[in-house]
Amino acid sequence: MKKIVNCSLCLAASALLTSIAPSVNRLAEDAWKSGDLYGAAKITCTKARDADVGNVTEINLNGSGNGSLAGNGIYFRIKNYTAVDTPLTVKLNSTNGAGIAPKTNVKQTYFDADGNPVDGIAARSWGNYMMLPASFDGFIYMNYAEQMTKIFGDEDFNPSSIWRIYIEYSGSYDSYASFAIGDIYTDQVQSLDTSAITEENFSNYFINTASEFQSVTQNPRAEEYVPEGDLKGGVKCELTGYGGFMVKFGAEINLSDGLYVRMKNDLDREIYPMIHVASDWFTYRVVTAQNQIINLYNNDGTFKSTVTVNEWGYFALPASFDGFIGFKDYTGFKNDWGEGFDPAKVVAVYFEADSVNFSVGDIFSPTVKAFDGSEKYETDFANFTETWTPDVIKLTQLEGYKEPEVVLFDYTQVTYGGSLEGGVTIKASKNEDSSVFSSALINFAEKIDLSAGEAVAINFKGVGSYAFQMEFIDGNGAKAILPAASDSAVKPIWMIKDGVATAMNHTTGDPNTIHTVEGEGVIVLEKGFLALSSAEFDWSKIAQIKVNVHTFYDNGINITLGDIGTVKQDGLIHTVVYKASEVTAWSSVYEAGDEFIKVSKFFTPKPSQWIGDVKLIDSLNYRSDEELKENVTYDIGDNACSYKKENDGMFVHIGPYETGHTYGNYMCLGMFDKGVTTDRKVAYKEVEGKKEYAKGITFYAENRSVKEIGLTLQFDEKIPGKGHTERWCVTGYPAMYYAWDVETNAEYMFYAKSDQVQIPVGFKGYIRVPFTSYSVPAWNAGLEGVDEVLDLDNFSGNFFLTSDNTRFEDLEYFIKNVGLYFNETAKGSVFNSEHTIKANMGL
Amino acid sequence: MRKTNILLAACGLLLSSCLLCACGSNEPVNPDNPDNPDNPDNPDTPDTTEVPIYEQGDKKAVNGAGLLFFETMGFNTKDASIFEENNERYIVYAGQEEAKGAQVFAARKGTLKDGAWVYGEKKVILKGATGDSAWDKFIYQPSVVKGTFKYNTKDYKYLMAYQGNSDGSNFNNNIGLAVSNDILGSWERVGTAPLIKNPEIYEASYGFGSPILLNVDQKGSLLIAYSFGETLLSGERVKSLNALDLNSPVLESGYAELPTAGLLGRDDGIITNAGLALGKNNDFYIANDGMTSSNAPGNATSFEVAKAGSGLISDVSTTWAQIKKVTGNDTIDPKNTESLGWDELCSADFVTDAYGRVDDTKEKLEIVYTSFNEGVGDAAYSGQLCSIEVAK
Prior knowledge:
The structure holds two protein chains of two kinds. By secondary structure, chain A is mainly β. Chain A is built from nine helices and 62 strands. Chain A folds into four domains: about 10-220, no CATH class; about 235-395, Jelly Rolls; about 410-600, no CATH class; about 610-840, Sandwich (Jelly Rolls), CATH 2.60.120. In chain A, the strands form nine sheets. In chain A, strands 45, 46, 48, 49, 53, 56, 57, 59 and 62 form a nine-stranded antiparallel sheet that branches. In chain A, strands 1, 3, 6, 7, 9, 12, 13 and 15 form an eight-stranded antiparallel sheet that branches. In chain A, strands 16, 18, 21, 22, 23, 26, 27 and 29 form an eight-stranded antiparallel sheet that branches. By secondary structure, chain B is mostly beta strands. Helices cover about 0% and strands about 40% of the residues of chain B. Chain B contains no helices and 21 strands. In chain B, the strands form five sheets. In chain B, strands 1, 2, 3, 4 and 5 form a five-stranded antiparallel sheet that branches. In chain B, strands 10, 11, 12, 13 and 14 form a five-stranded antiparallel sheet that branches. The interface between A and B is medium-sized, with 35 and 28 residues. Strand 57 of chain A pairs parallel with strand 14 (about 255) of chain B, so a sheet runs across the interface.
């Protein structure tokens, strides 16, 4: 490097440039901390030398010589763009010909970009180097006396009058070098404000003496424009080979004032894309070209750095880069197709690369947004993207695209039918495992068709406010589930109650849930609002509905689901497709998925039916075997009897006697109060304010056997405060009872043989056993509270149908209409025609 | 004799001491004494059918209450049905046609002589049916009422119900009907099938027997009471029977089993072999054999007389009120303290009007019963008919 001893020209020149000379007024002590990289010189080695020859950049602090570094040391605002420690030879050449450089093996002083001390790196043990740490971005300080040494000149170094600063690095060993030098301060003066250097004067301040091997460019002097944009609705590109795509604007857009693209490197390594820009409806096209400078911005729009397009037209996008690339103008581009590119008529931007993944979002200029993915619908994707390398590219629309405008239908306009009757009430107990959900299942052996209309409607009742999920599962296992919490505001699940629609809120943090709305109504789930696991989800073949409850948090849930139907917006038609009250095998349809879920049948208890003077306690007229066995229970482990639904009652086959019967030699079927009626336990009726008590037990029976058959309906009297009851059984002698055969009209008066009411062979009719024919058996008589006095105010409503297996083995009968009779009863005879069973029952 | 609870009765009657003399001698009389006017070998023995040894109809039996008439040992007189009409009595009963012979139904007419009923000649009125398929080759327990009955094209005044079986085994009994216009004359069976048939499944059991007819309206509206017995079922049933046209009698398909509440004479709740009568207000009177379930097979040793309201056959709450339990002690001749009462008393029935009603206005009920004295003679053929008055 040529030593400059004296330069009259420089001295003269310095006087001309004093107008832009940095201030020489003494600064505040920490003034240097405000130094920045705006307008900084970015020095990048572009070509390695074959020999170890230095690439030098001269800094003229005033645009020519004679700057000032007055003070005790020099602060460089400096940044290393590489991830490699870069040794720099820094020489300060005063106008008297003296020059100083960093002392060998003396560490410089390092500060971060905010002026806070940092460790830096060790000094080089040889030569005179300022060591620039890898990726460093901050200040390096060197004290003239302590950290620098005179390397040439006869005079003493005069910091107040500086001819040049020389920055040098090995063009062969350090050919990776890329760094920027910004503001230069001393503890007394701001020696260089790079942001004040215009583009035109830049080369006066930073002189590239090795332009063949390095580039010296100016970073943006100040942030004139902060790009804003996002990746929403943009394009995710995954390349398995060399390929590319374009984002088409669908119009000619004037991007004359620059081109900015929101981009993201989806890989954790540097990638090299290329960009083309087309105008005039693709007539002309330009492409990124060698040495073209591209600004990189962080995703908040702040300037990050520049990149230079390499000789092949690619530029380096840093690993995991997530921000903007920007072109202030199109001067760096070269023609790629035709020669008439017009930035005022840009129609598309092309992106090319090889086997990399990256994402492209908004494309815009400071004044115009050419492409905004968030304004595009999902259905637009195929229109605004195009690729010519389909075999190696996968393009996906990023989230954030525009959702179709949801027009909420007013479901309160619909008149809803259906009911909760026969449905399921779901409750839960607490599961200490907070990570799981429990489910109640509604199974449709015959899949139901909910394909009609736009919405599913379920008659519903909620108590309190608890969260639950709901899944519709079709015959192939595909699901439709409630919208995610983020969608709830625009895709509500409605509770229609008393003509008012209330959106069922989601639970924050719990996906796909809704909260119950207190009260009874109809919940309406618009199908388009539900998330489908498969595009093939089939509403016409719904196999199951799952109600999921987080039993750790929502174990207080109490909801009832009844009829299930559809809502057709056109015509405001609500159609009940599945009527819960018609379910005859309830336990097969509704079940609890685990021990934390409780399911029970919902029904509205009704008063008991009456036939004449008979109040039916249990008609035994169930719709299915399963329903029968839900209400008439047989909990003996042996086969003392078998029973099933037959027509409007129950058929019983008395089994053989086997040793070890639970109840000795008797079969026993229990008919218990399940709350179906409101007054099962009431054994009286109010007549003019007084209680008229029932007179006895009645039932209809048919003897299907060739012999007389015996059975008894035992019943329980509650004993207040006791866990056991007082049991009443038919006495043997001298208990008597009545019978009336409905087919032959024969009337009978019998006395009970042993403890069984005996039904004549072929009998089909009603039996009446007065309470006077009942007594307490020995096994019960000794229990506490058993007083052997019948108190019908404590009638339990529970019956036990027994037959003696030893006497009536293998005989069969039919029974129905078990109840209480209230009128005086007598057998018709030549002396009496009143109070017959037939007359009492009004049959 | 009427059966009790499917058991055959067998007893003997000691007749050697059963002779009573009009003078009221208390000394036992040896029936073999050729001078004994009762000795049938004594040519001087008066015709007992016309001149009863036991006069006055009082309780002056040699042993026990008064015999209605004397039937020689071996004729097994028993199971009477008796009614009084126009100062005449008719008694229909079972007995042997000849000593130890086949059982037949016989009838006698009684007339009142000096305050005592004197019964005339025995007439055999119905025998067991013949024919291999006859259901009633062996007949028992007649019950006769008066009324208005038509059978075939003929009108009849008297209707009889009786028990029968085909083999004399006391199993599989059925109940049939017969009609006549002359109690002492011929009786014609009503049809060839029983009126009340024992179901086949119960053929091994007693079946149905001991019928009692009660004519409610004095025409053809009857009540028929009968015993039934099968392995686990025994009792007394009552059906209504419209017998106006016996070509198509209307037998009630249902029935009332008579309640036993209030009857003290039995501990097993069973009414069998009972005699029944109606009172003026349709009250029921019963004379029920006093067997207990603990008795060994044999005859009753007592019978119980009781009364119940008309609700007996329609209202389960109707109970009996006992009038008296008649035992052997009640049959002791009060004038002969050394005499013995009858050991076995059974098959009692009431002396009623022709329609089966007792006279409620009277202070006493007259009851005819069958008696045996066990150990006397051939017990199987020792039945006699006696009567006793019971104060209500």
